[in-house]
Amino acid sequence: MILITGATGLVGRRLVQRMMKEALPTRCLLMERQLRRLPWDTGNPYAPEVVIGTVTDEEAFFRAVTGCHAVIHLENAMWWGRRRDLEQVELAGARALAAVARAARVGRIITLSQLGAAPSSAYTLHRVKGEVEYILRNSGVAFTIIRSGIVYSSEDAFINHIASMLRINPAFFLMPGSGETVLHPIYIDDLVEAIYRSLNLIRLVDTTVEIGGAEYMSLHDLMRTIMRVTGMRRILVSLPPYLLRWITHIYSRLLPRSLMTSQWLDILAANRTAPLGNTYDYFGFQPRRFEETLLTYLPQGRHFAVALRGTFRRRPRAAWFAG
Questions:
Q1: For domain 152-186+212-272+288-314, which CATH number applies: 1.10.4030, 3.30.70, 3.90.25, 3.30.530?
Q2: Strand pairing category for 49-52 and 26-30
Q3: Is the torsion defined by CA of 294, 297, 301, 307 positive or negative?
């Protein structure tokens, strides 16, 4: 039995569908309200078991991990979470996971982190991710930590939000710095495949793995690629990152959500890359190329609707976050 936390999130729901396809026994830890709209076919004989609770409820968490030989931990507050949300969901969740997994004699914890994660990082997102890694490394349970680059898909909160901002503003796009930051985007199906294959790779036990897609891209090149794919040509206006953080803070006070968040700016604060061959070396497959993949879905996206839905969507409470 394999437990997946954050099973209704961007990565989690794809992973659940992959596990169903392989007929692997799976269990999910979900809140009761999440049962109303599960993103998989509940009539499928290989649909996961559901335990009601959250990662911060140790009693429910213990019930969920009991009998599981592995936990894939995807619960996070990355795109919505403010600092206290990151601490309440990610740090408290990691501490609870370490305790219940040790008590239930779980064989291994597999968790998803970010390139650049470090407890000493100056940026909140990467510092919290680094602290989560530290907690799980010292949990007394075997672990595999997969640090990935920016994850993109037809439903992501990074590439799609860029396209939405381009649609809203027909003249220009505010870019942090000169766009010199180097990123390593990875397509969601490639990341899910890596997580799935890690279950059977004994050499990854007690290891931290860094992976990304098929190429490195500067933020400037990434913006140009998105504009070329969508046909939305805009002037790129460089602004100091601290000024964009201030603007984002103002937007978050006026609207339920800013499309460009502080987590965005943490990711764009420094180069975040892994060796290009790591995905193949560790997991045995070549990741997809960025522009070729975007062409399959991004031009057809309803970016204005995504902007409205994303901006005015109610901020969830801390316990509602999922990976």
A1: 3.90.25
A2: parallel
A3: negative
Helix (H) or strand (E) holding 20: helix 10-21
Q: For 47-56, how does the pLDDT look when each residue is reduced to its tens digit (9 = 90+)?
A: 999 999 888 8
CATH of region 1-148, choose from 3.40.50.10330, 3.40.50.720, 3.30.70.260, 1.10.260.40:
3.40.50.720
Taking the C-alpha atoms of residue 90 and residue 78, their distance in angstroms, rounded to an integer, is 9
Query: CA 215 to CA 225: how far, in whole Å?
Result: 13
Q: Which two tokens stand for residue 4?
A: 């997946």
- Each residue's pLDDT tens digit, 61-99: 899 999 999 999 998 876 655 677 777 788 888 999 999
Question: Helix, strand, or coil here: 159?
Answer: helix
- Separation of alpha carbons 281 and 204, rounded Å: 12
Structure tokens, 172: 């220009």
Q: Computed from CA positions of residues 189, 192, 194, 197, in that sequence, does the dihedral angle turn out positive or negative? A: negative
Q: Where are the strands (E) in 166-253, listed by range?
A: 172-176, 182-183, 186-187, 207-211, 217-218, 235-239
Residue 312, Cα to own-chain centre: how many angstroms?
A: 21
Q: Which long-range contacts (CB under 8 A, 24 or more apart) does 27-30 make?
A: 27/1, 27/2, 27/3, 27/51, 27/64, 27/68, 28/3, 28/4, 29/3, 29/4, 29/5, 29/53, 29/54, 29/55, 29/60, 29/61, 29/64
